[in-house]
Amino acid sequence: MLKKERQAYILHQVNLHNKVLSSLLSHEIRVSEDTIRRDLQELSEEGKLIKVHGGALSHSFNDVTYSGLSVYSQDQKRIIGEKAAALIENGMFVLTSGGTTIIEMARALPPSLRATFISGSIPAILEYMMHPNIEVIMIGDRVSKNAKITIGAEAIAKIKNINADLCFLGINAIDIKRGTTENDWEIAQLKKIMIDSSRKVVCCTISEKINTLQPIHICNLPDIDILITELPPDAPILKPYVDAGIQVL
């Protein structure tokens, strides 16, 4: 793979998954980690990503307000957000992760909706606070500067005490054999507890993440009640998930 092709692949993975690990890129592209680090440094100097220890972040992942200027596949995420918002009814307790797709859901909530939203995601909390009739509960603990979400033992303990009607997860990857996976250990632990603390689990993802894999396991397909993408439910790529018993929207 030529340098230009390699860097284009890296940038696409950063935009798609919001965060990449140097070690994983090294394995996928079959080059040394030193080569990956040099590529990340060059891309960072060009303003195309944010280099961090062990990998890189997309600019949208580092944005607290999500203006939309740097959000990957925002039109598709807006469609997903509208589908997700339609599932929420008055009086529900809703537990959500963070991420740009969840932000689009927050922006699609009807002004008349009266519900309680619980999250540790700072960008999501800011969106919920703009809503006229939503009660907002923030899960507190140590804040991940990269993910803009509270993490750690206290956050996990608080989530364990929640009995949510719906849990909305913005997911990084989903595969028919391995279920949903992540590339951040602490966020993966949070999502596992969120699943256990909710009556129904809704996974939201652009279709480009379907049949992809990340290194850290979150849950298997039977743990997912609803899968939402921007595609119509009868799209061929979604058929295996329908066959697995998941409601696809």
TrEMBL record:
<dbReference type="InterPro" id="IPR001034">
    <property type="entry name" value="DeoR_HTH"/>
</dbReference>
<dbReference type="InterPro" id="IPR036388">
    <property type="entry name" value="WH-like_DNA-bd_sf"/>
</dbReference>
<dbReference type="GO" id="GO:0003700">
    <property type="term" value="F:DNA-binding transcription factor activity"/>
</dbReference>
<dbReference type="InterPro" id="IPR050313">
    <property type="entry name" value="Carb_Metab_HTH_regulators"/>
</dbReference>
<dbReference type="GO" id="GO:0003677">
    <property type="term" value="F:DNA binding"/>
</dbReference>
<feature type="domain" description="HTH deoR-type">
    <location>
        <begin position="3"/>
        <end position="58"/>
    </location>
</feature>
<dbReference type="InterPro" id="IPR018356">
    <property type="entry name" value="Tscrpt_reg_HTH_DeoR_CS"/>
</dbReference>
<dbReference type="InterPro" id="IPR036390">
    <property type="entry name" value="WH_DNA-bd_sf"/>
</dbReference>
<keyword id="KW-0804">Transcription</keyword>
<keyword id="KW-0805">Transcription regulation</keyword>
<dbReference type="InterPro" id="IPR037171">
    <property type="entry name" value="NagB/RpiA_transferase-like"/>
</dbReference>
<keyword id="KW-0238">DNA-binding</keyword>
<dbReference type="Pfam" id="PF08220">
    <property type="entry name" value="HTH_DeoR"/>
</dbReference>
<dbReference type="InterPro" id="IPR014036">
    <property type="entry name" value="DeoR-like_C"/>
</dbReference>
<dbReference type="Pfam" id="PF00455">
    <property type="entry name" value="DeoRC"/>
</dbReference>
<protein>
    <submittedName>
        <fullName>DeoR family transcriptional regulator</fullName>
    </submittedName>
</protein>
<keyword id="KW-0678">Repressor</keyword>
